[in-house]
Amino acid sequence: MNPPSASHWFETNPLWFKTAVFYEIHLRGFYDGNGDGSGDFRGLTEKLDYLQWLGIDVIWLLPMYASPLRDGGYDIADFYLVHPDYGTIDDVRAFIDAAHERGIRVIADLVMNHTSSDHSWFQESRSSPDNPKRSWYVWSDTYERYQDARIIFTDTETSNWTWDEEAGAYYWHRFFSHQPDLNYDEPAVHDAMLEVLRFWCDLGLDGFRLDAVPYLYEREGTNCENLGETHAFLKKVREAIDSEYPDKVLLAEANQWPEDVVEYFGDGDECHMAFHFPVMPRMFMSLRREEATPIYEILERTPDIPANCQWGLFLRNHDELTLEMVTDEERDYMYSEYAKDPRMKINVGIRRRLAPLLDNGRDEMELLHAILFSLPGSPVLYYGDEIAMGDNVYLGDRDGVRTPMQWTGDRNGGFSRADFAQLYAPPLMDPVYGFQAVNVEAQLRTPSSQLRWLRRFISLRKEHPVFGLGTYEPLAPSNTKIFAHIRRFEDDIALCVHNLARSAQAVELDLSAYEGRTPVEMFGRTAFPRVGELPYLLTLAPRGFFWFLLEDRDADGS
Amino acid sequence: MPTEADLIRSIDDDALSDWIVGQRWFASKARDVTIGLVEVLVLDEDPPLGLALVEARFAAGTHDLYQLLVGPGDLEAMTTPAPARALARLLTGEARVQGEHGVIAFHWSGEPLAAENVRLLGAEQSNTSIVIDESAVLKVFRRLEAGDNPELEMVRFLTSRGFENVPALRGWYALEGELLDATLGVAQELVSDGRDGWDMVLETLATDPERALDDLAELGEVIGRMHTVLGSDITDPDFSPDDPGEEGLALLTATIDEEIERVFLDLPADDEALAPIAGRGEEIRDRLQLMSHVVVGGKLIRHHGDLHLGQTLRTPDRWVVLDFEGEPARSLIDRRRKRSPLRDVAGMLRSFAYVATAASLLKGATVPENWEATARERFLNGYFTEVDAGLLPASEAGIRQLMAIFELEKAVYELRYELNNRPDWVPIPVAGIARLLQEPLT
Questions:
Q1: Which domain holds residue B23?
Q2: B272 in the same domain as B178
Q3: Same domain, B281 and B395
Q4: Domain holding B342: CATH number?
Q5: What residue of A is the nearest CA neighbor of B265?
Q6: Smallest Cα–Cα separation from B144: which of B119, B173, B167, B168?
Q7: Nearest CB to A492: which of B59, B265, B289?
Q8: Which chain B residues have a beta carbon less than 8 Å from that of A551?
Q9: What is the per-residue pLDDT across A143-177, written as a single tens digit (0 to 9) for each?
Q10: Nearest residue to B43 via CA among B79, B77, B1
């Protein structure tokens, strides 16, 4: 039985993603519905009411496909199966349906660049040079090709080529050696991947986060990233999706500089969304330095994007806090400030969650959320950060930021009814971040909790489409501790002022363009003095912020 | 020479825009709205009848969708019998009309009707109604939302299970389209010998308050049976009873708690009517927290969603429950959600408070002092004898507290509404909230 199409639940709106709040979920860690120690689709379905209450619009699922799980599921062994720990295709269907019924859309990770070495395609490919799938991967007699391509997983890999005994050849891989890259010069690979997309669209998915897209093609003498052929293929994908399915979204993961990332939007005919990676570390940098310049600078450096496209913005995600898109000097600074314990570093980044990064400072967490929500783009939240969960730096790889969601103060943090020893990873139990101190149940009951605050904040942002659709106009006051800007969409004008300093600050803003308007604080609906001829003076508490609507009260006749 | 079909299609954008924003049922009071015609489907050429899908786009980037039934050069065709008869015939004839953005599909069930004789019902707030052959009444929705309208779903479900206290479903028509799937209209059996339940109780209160109590006890039984039926089918995913889920109650409590905070934030300081609850916001919130602790078990089911006396009809031999659309201000998704059946019960109990005050305010009646308390008791006794106990929390205290939580939710909503719209009625929700504060907790 096919689920009702999304048009049964939503009115068609091709730009729905522009005003959406995303919520990223590590399925294994969210909720265990069948008591086997690992989160699954049935468990996630049970928690949809919670997510609806929180107010998010889109769930982004990390890969749930069949996989040997040597890279958290990004090593896909079969695109048409769900990993048995997570459930069955029918469970996925029921979940998507239940989410749609609550007005929540669902997108999922899809890795186009490579497969697991366990995938039958690779097994066939390596079996003989005459196998029809030989050309589906990138084989070579020498490891000397494409030497200008950097190595991404510097902690584990020494080359992008690995020798395969069975094939008698080297195969190309931009990530782990157990993840051979698919060969996009082979047209059959295009067709195979489009079939995969159709299968999941038919099942009801509302879109895909395309993992590792810059690396689809290899060309000698280039760094093998962001090549023209890659963009041509993505346009082909977009065309196929647009013609067959309404209202889907393609979200590119391209950890690149903004001027390179905008290429992934094409002329509005490639990906609908792309993550803005470089702004993320700069928010943390600005906070630590008490200095807004890094944020202003990166936004200054960010080109305009087509009107039907959107940035994806985030504070933290399932990966390390990546520091690829900063200068060496900035990276040293970030390491010294945010990764004092060397165990916290991984690859080119820091493997910690939001709360520990900010020393569990409530003001700091609120301030960073405010900045995130005020920027042009759609915010992507990471599961657990809404209750300020911590991390476990002693777990390997990036598993430390993927521990079980803390639902209650009961056994296993309410995550699973399985024996503790059965859990895929231990829940946090330390006195500060452990499930007895930090959990959904307690925060639901406490009106002043971070969870309840964030819910109010999400609903505030969603009341004002200006944050998704509006312009970004920096104000850059002379007090550089203040990040202040205007968002404007038609008649809606929002003024956002954030104090990055640990101390109270006064700031004078040039609001001459808005003379006569009345700033109305958005949370409490308190009217502030009208904007006059002089610079507008505001005072802000340490790490405080104000969001105003600049209302034209005269025009309203009140 | 233009055909009738051409004339139907020739809608002038400016005229449409001016006309629609002047309509009472036009939901938005926003100043900046752009009206655009999505499509006009010609339903019939003789007599000429068209269906226009109209989009209202707002500056903030959102939009609403409306259905208009139009004639040649006429934006409101449902003022004369001929086009109404055409619509009725399409319905009873199960027509299908293909448009650019989808199909309009008409459905009819039960006895065929000639649809000779149609009567248009006076202007309702949000919908137009057409009485067909004095046997069925077709409600035409103006504002459209994606998904099955709960009115259709609920009445279809209850009718098919033999529940006799709703007007039986006779037919419906819907848009099945790429833009959205939406219910456009629903036809039900015409209840010709019924009186509005609110009016009936209001008047009886002035003359014979005791008799009103008997009627309310019977109404309790009807609502109890209705919930039992609504929670009886585990095979239909849209109706099968759900477990509340671990956070269910906490999510509900947190939501109401926020609402209380917001309402008390805006509470005027100098209103004497507010004296019984003034400054007691924190106390109410603490109380809410304590109430939520004793509630365990029960089920979530589809329910009426906006139940009060005004949604009932009293005929000589039965109560009839009407209008399953849910609270119009809530989104369709929200209105289709399963919740505890006690939410309906709380809505009805609040309505008793209103009717008692209204009887003295509007009719000058002297309502016996304990009338509301007795009415509650009689209604609840009737309800509990008929409702499937498995749908309710496990303990009596749990039932009482969950009901109180829903009553509080309702009263807080009323308080905000009355403060904004009818200051004279503010004492009603105030008394309701004050009473909840006095009740014992266990």
A1: 4-189
A2: no
A3: yes
A4: 3.90.1200.10
A5: A524
A6: B173
A7: B59
A8: none
A9: 999 999 999 888 889 999 999 999 999 999 999 99
A10: B77
